[in-house]
Amino acid sequence: MRKFLLCALAAASLFGAAPKKPKLVLALVFDQFRYDYLTRFRGEFTGGFDALLTRGAVFSNARYVHFPTVTAVGHSTFLSGALPSLSGIVANDWYDQEERAHVTSVSDKSTKLLGGSGGEGASPRRLLVDTVGDELKMADGGKSHVIGISLKDRAAILPAGHMADAAYWFDIGSGVFVSSSYYLADLPAWVKEFNGAHPADRYRDLVWLDHKMPSSGADLYRMLEQSPYGNDLLERFAERVLEAEQLGRHEHTDVLAISFSAHDYVGHAYGPFAPEEREVTLQTDKFLQKLLEAANRQAGDGNVLVVMTGDHGAAPAPGRSAGWKIPGGHMPGSAVRDAVQAALAARYGAGDWVLGNWDLLIYLNRDLIARKKLDLAEVRRVAEQAASAVPHVSRVYTWDELHDGRVPGDATSRMIMNSFNARRSADLAFLPDPYWLFSGGATSHSTTYGYDTHVPVIFMGPGVRPGRYDGSITVNDIASTLATMLDVETPSGAAGRVLTEMLPR
């Protein structure tokens, strides 16, 4: 017996006492949130962002290392740590060669929408890896509660993972929060009660800056997303989730993953240097303070671990860049698609040669190519030449080049390679010149450039050493770090390291 006790004491000395686990993990994503929002508006923060910057471990040089930098890919990375090449989430939308259909990152015909206007639901089934929440549930026999919420379906679903108890998102057709039959047979009574009060209607006719909200209906709900009120509504829903699901009061650690979408909608409409972006950030600072207070009330002070990031950044609006004498501008969103279609039609005859063009990706009509008995790799080379000739296209990569690894060995090509999945990736991926946008709206994102990849990463709470950390990290590091802090297995596809510099020594 004495020998056993000595061995136990030696083991405790060797490994140290097990760290206290938080009762609640608050995993926050701010959609289209550039890192410099935290520095440009720092002097005006008095709420939640001030708390994170003052009491958190702030990583000032966190970046994504994939392409395209869009919502679904960023959100799938957040709590899985996986690169798109392994996670399978290669874009917001793609053409699925097996289904012979355009799909989204979370579309799932086998599910039904719960609530709202009805129709097809959504699920995480296209995500090929698991998340921190999944690992928590596997470790404790499903006793941890994991829930994801957002205005967007993909932003609610992908961080929460496969085993989540629920994911909820906003339906602009009906102005209520909905879910999917993947998770539940019916919406819980508390969600129906929340929706029954018509919470989105509270914002009708309100004015922010010089923008007046519509009086009612789908116009109101659509404009709600494009205003600070979208983040306010989500924060109110988050408080209800915390209370109704008793998150942070269970025996095991719970996870609430929240993605605030308003920055993305405002950014696309007005640009990241517009007064509107400053306004939505300062208003969200107040909403975030309310959320942090509610989480601490629910789980108890010292029991909430917060991790915050953005899913991508955004380019300055070209009009503003021109005033700064920085190169850049707009090209039609269909410019590359049209060039490829024209070149293939001229070379091989009439036909719908391009099936899809989403973000900076081109999917060719492989069935047509097969019917004409053409060599697919050759058709891609012709398409590549056409795309490369479009003004302000910097680089073009074909599926074959990426599959075979026949690309330059620089950082940009490595980011493109990090996202190559043989079953799902596009026939062509193209990169514009810096500050050039192949889209409408005031701004966009998707590229490998710093303005799209540089985002905040902040941890705050038990087990975190506050301070500013200026070393380079990737957003993929979040999942490995969280898994270590929670003492669970690292998610299956995690490609990041543990941020030991912020952990107690």
Shape: globular
Number of helices: 20
Point out poorly predicted stretches: 1-15
Helical residue percent band: 25-40%
Put the structure in a nutshell.
With 505 residues, the chain is an alpha/beta fold. The protein has 20 helices and 21 strands. The chain has 2 domains: 21-317 and 448-502, Alkaline Phosphatase, subunit A (3-Layer(aba) Sandwich); 329-438, Gyrase A, domain 2, CATH 3.30.1360.150.
What does this structure look like?
β8 (166-171) and β9 form a beta hairpin. The chain contains 20 helices and 21 strands. The strands form 5 sheets. An 11-stranded mixed β-sheet has the order 6-5-9-8-7-12-1-13-20-2-21, with helices on both faces. A 4-stranded antiparallel β-sheet has the order 15-16-18-17. It has a two-stranded antiparallel sheet with strand order 3-4. By secondary structure, it is α/β, with parallel strands linked by helices. The longest helix has 25 residues, at 275-299. α4 (71-78) runs parallel beside α7 and α10 (228-244) packs parallel to α12 (275-299). The protein has 2 domains: 21-317 and 448-502, 3-Layer(aba) Sandwich (Alkaline Phosphatase, subunit A); 329-438, Gyrase A, domain 2 (2-Layer Sandwich).
Task: Name the features.
single chain, 505 residues, alpha/beta, Alkaline Phosphatase, subunit A, Gyrase A, domain 2, 2 domains, eleven-stranded mixed β-sheet, four-stranded antiparallel β-sheet, 20 helices, 21 strands, 37% helix, globular, disordered N terminus
